[in-house]
Design a protein that fits this description.
Helix content: 10-25%
Structural class: mainly beta
CATH topology of the largest domain: Immunoglobulin-like
Number of helices: 3
Radius of gyration: 18 Å
Oligomer: single chain
Shape: elongated
Number of strands: 12
Strand order of the largest sheet: 9-8-11-12-5-6-7-10
CATH architecture of the largest domain: Sandwich
CATH superfamily of the largest domain: Superoxide dismutase, copper/zinc binding domain
Number of domains: 2
CATH class of the largest domain: Mainly Beta
């Protein structure tokens, strides 16, 4: 099934739009399925190709891009969506880490989670939804993992009664510090995100497997950078 992908792209001049369109066309994307706005810095592509492939095609032009959103090309409506931003004037970050995570409720039982985070150390990093969205003092006031069922910490792929609501597992950054991810989750719901925050941790989440130190609380995943939500 085709999807509609929206990218935030840093275009320095109108000629960048032509470069991007030419590159995407070389990848078999019809020009009628490519919509580029230099004024807003967005590229929208309708395709059945993976978002990572389209992102790589755009960046082959030497222009930096981030996946901003996605949805069905067939159905224009969903059951709700939320976006979390990290870095800049929005999400709190003590470093150069920045990016975006998008949540789309595609039906009553499934939420699609996807995004791009830059500036991470290579390797795995935990990703979780937290109880509070108060970033007035960095990540100090966002509380613990969102845990509506009062269960122990686990992995995103664990049974619904064996993980926190906000347990989303790990994302993996490549050698350039970029993590691109996309998965469906049956426990988190867009309605849960109001007044919350999401954190990307400095270490890998052991998902409660080691049973030592804070494994069953936060997976020993370390300090976090926080993202701010808007719907």
């Amino acid at each position: 099934m085709s999807a509609k992908l929206e990218f935030a792209v840093k275009m320095s001049s109108p000629s960048c739009a032509d470069k991007i369109q030419d590159q995407l066309s070389q990848n078999g994307i019809s020009k009628s399925d490519i919509h580029i706005s230099y004024e807003t810095g967005t590229v929208i592509v309708t395709t059945d190709q993976p978002s990572s492939l389209i992102l790589n095609s755009i960046e082959k032009t030497g222009i930096k891009a981030v996946l901003k959103g996605y949805g069905s090309a067939t159905y224009d409506r969903n059951l709700g969506a939320a976006v979390a931003m990290l870095g800049g004037s929005t999400g709190y970050s003590k470093s150069d880490i920045n990016g975006v995570v998008r949540f789309v409720q595609i039906n009553n039982d499934e939420c699609v989670v996807g995004g791009t985070i830059d500036g991470l150390s290579p390797g795995k990093h935990g990703i979780h939804v937290y109880e509070c969205g108060d970033l007035s003092n960095g990540c100090d006031r966002i509380g613990d993992h969102l845990n509506l069922k009062q269960t122990t910490h686990g992995n995103q792929t664990d049974g619904l009664n064996f993980r926190h609501t906000g347990d989303l597992g790990n994302i993996t950054a490549n050698e350039d510090g970029r993590a691109i991810f996309y998965f469906k989750d049956k426990l988190i719901n867009v309605s849960h995100l109001i007044g919350r925050a999401v954190g990307i941790t400095e270490n890998e989440d052991d998902c409660g497997r080691t049973k030592i130190n804070t494994s069953e609380i936060d997976g020993n995943s370390g300090k976090k950078n926080c993202l701010w939500y808007y719907c």
